[in-house]
Write a structure and sequence with these properties.
Layout: H1 2-6, H2 54-57, E1 69-77, E2 88-97, E3 102-112, E4 116-119, E5 125-129, E6 132-143, E7 148-160, E8 166-168, E9 173-175, E10 179-193, E11 198-210, E12 228-238, E13 243-254, H3 265-271, H4 276-282, H5 290-296, E14 299-308, E15 312-320, E16 329-339, E17 342-351, E18 364-371
Antiparallel strand pairs: 1-2, 1-18, 2-3, 3-6, 4-5, 6-7, 7-10, 8-9, 10-11, 11-12, 12-13, 13-14, 14-15, 15-16, 16-17, 17-18
Length: 376
C-alpha cells in the first residue's frame, strides 16, 4: 500500500502559494520522544539534565549521570484519538557507570503497527500482516574534562512494513522485503556552574547517520534514515534547598537533502543517487526555495521544569514546525515523581493547529524507572 501511494500523491500548497515540500525519510519513529520527561517539555533534550534517556537526546550527557546504574522504560499509545488500540511504541533503556569519567548504556525502541488484514480485490482475507519497526543501540560517554563530555552510539535498525508481500500497482509487481541498516550517533555536552545556585549547559548531537533503507531491489526506492542535528541549551537556578527551575531551548534540522519540487523530473533522478554523507552536507543549502525554505526546515522546542525537594516535578513546553515542512505544532505538559530508587513520569500532548493530525494528540505517555544504586 505504501509503495503504491508514492506514485499518487499530489502537491499541497501553503496559504502563500508556496508548494509544501515535506522531507520524507524511512523509520521516522526513531525521532519520536521515547520518554515522558522530555516529551512533557516540548521535546527538548540536547542539554537537559542527564538521565537514562540521554542516549536518544544526546549520548554525551550520559557521562554526567549522578547514579551508578539504572533501568527505565516508556509506553506510548499510538493513534488513540482515532480509537486504534493495537499500535504502540515501547522503549527500554539502561545505563551503567563504569567509573567517575565514563558511562555505558543500551536501549531498545520497538514500534508495532498492529494487525493488518491483507485481502484480495474482492475483499477476501489472504493473510494477516504484523508490520513493525525496531532499533537496538549501545552507547559510551566519556568526560574529556570536568565540564565537557563526548558520546558515541552504534545502532542496528530494522523496518518490516510489508512482511515480504508482493505489491502491485496494476501494471507491475514489486517484491518487498524488510529494510535493515546500521547507524551511528555522536554527541558533545558541556555544563558549567555559574555560582553555587546557577548552572548552564550546552549540547550538540548528530543522530542516525547511516546507510539508506531498501524495501525492495529497486535502487530508486531507497529511503534516507532520519539523520538529525540537534543543538540546545539549558539554564538551571536552584532557588533554595527545596525549589529548582530549569528552562531549555533546542533547534533541530534533518540532515537529509530536500526533495525536488513535484514536477522536477531531472531533480528526482539526481535525488535518488545522492549518498548519505553528500546528502547531509547538501541539506544545508539545497532547498528549492532558497534560504527562506532552509530556515523553514528548522524545528524549535522550548521547555521548562520545576522541581520541589527533588521529589515532585512539573513540566511544560512547546514544539514548532513550519507548515510547509509538516506543520506539527503542539504544547505539552507533564509531571514527575521521585521516591527512593523509583521514578515515575507522565506527559500529555495538546495540538495547537489543525494543519496536520498528530498521532499522539491527547495521549498520555508513561515512563517508569529504577536507579538501583544512586550516589546521593
Amino acid at each position: 500500500m505504501l509503495v503504491a501511494l508514492c506514485g499518487t500523491l499530489s502537491a499541497q500548497y501553503s496559504e502563500l502559494g508556496q508548494e509544501k515540500n515535506f522531507i520524507s525519510t524511512g523509520l521516522p519513529i526513531i525521532l519520536i520522544a521515547p520518554d515522558a520527561i522530555s516529551s512533557g517539555m516540548g521535546d527538548v533534550g540536547a542539554a537537559t539534565t542527564p538521565d537514562a534517556y540521554s542516549a536518544h537526546w544526546n549520548n554525551a550527557k550520559l557521562a554526567f549521570i549522578d547514579g551508578l546504574t539504572g533501568v527505565y522504560t516508556t509506553y506510548t499509545p499510538w493513534l488513540r484519538k482515532l480509537k486504534v488500540g493495537d499500535m504502540n511504541l515501547f522503549y527500554l533503556a539502561g545505563y551503567y557507570r563504569i567509573n567517575d569519567r565514563s558511562t555505558a548504556a543500551a536501549s531498545l525502541t520497538y514500534f508495532t503497527l498492529g494487525d493488518i488484514d491483507n485481502t484480495d480485490i474482492e475483499g477476501n482475507k489472504i493473510t494477516t500482516l504484523h508490520p513493525n519497526e525496531f532499533a537496538i543501540d549501545a552507547s559510551y560517554a566519556l568526560k574529556i574534562t570536568d565540564n565537557l563530555s563526548l558520546g558515541a552510539t552504534g545502532r542496528f535498525l530494522r523496518s518490516d512494513l510489508t512482511n515480504g508481500q508482493t505489491i502491485s500497482d496494476g501494471s507491475s509487481n514489486t517484491a518487498t522485503q524488510a529494510a535493515n541498516s546500521l547507524a551511528a550517533d555522536i554527541g558533545l555536552y558541556y555544563q558549567q556552574a555559574i555560582d553555587k545556585t546557577q548552572e548552564f549547559a550546552l549540547g550538540a548531537f548528530i543522530s542516525n547517520l547511516g546507510a539508506k533503507l531498501s524495501y525492495s531491489n529497486d535502487d530508486n526506492d531507497k529511503e534516507f534514515l532520519p539523520t538529525n542535528l540537534r543543538l540546545g541549551g539549558r539554564y538551571t537556578n536552584r532557588i533554595d534547598d527545596f525549589n529548582k527551575i530549569s528552562v531549555m531551548l533546542d533547534f533541530n534540522k534533518l540532515l537529509v537533502p530536500t526533495p525536488p519540487l513535484r514536477n522536477d523530473t531531472a531533480g528526482w533522478a539526481d535525488y535518488n543517487q545522492i549518498g548519505v554523507i553528500e546528502g547531509a552536507l547538501r541539506s544545508f543549502g539545497d532547498a528549492p526555495g532558497g534560504l527562506q525554505e532552509e530556515l523553514q526546515e528548522i524545528q524549535i522546542s522550548a521547555g521548562a521544569e520545576y522541581w520541589y525537594s527533588e521529589t515532585f516535578a512539573v513540566r511544560a513546553g512547546y514544539f514548532f514546525e513550519h507548515a510547509n515542512k509538516g506543520g506539527r505544532q503542539y504544547a505539552t505538559v507533564g509531571v514527575g515523581i521521585r521516591y527512593s530508587y523509583f521514578t515515575g513520569d507522565f506527559s500529555y500532548l495538546i495540538p495547537t493547529t489543525t494543519i496536520s493530525n498528530n498521532s499522539l494528540a491527547n495521549t498520555i505517555r508513561v515512563s517508569i524507572g529504577l536507579d538501583m544504586k544512586p550516589t546521593k
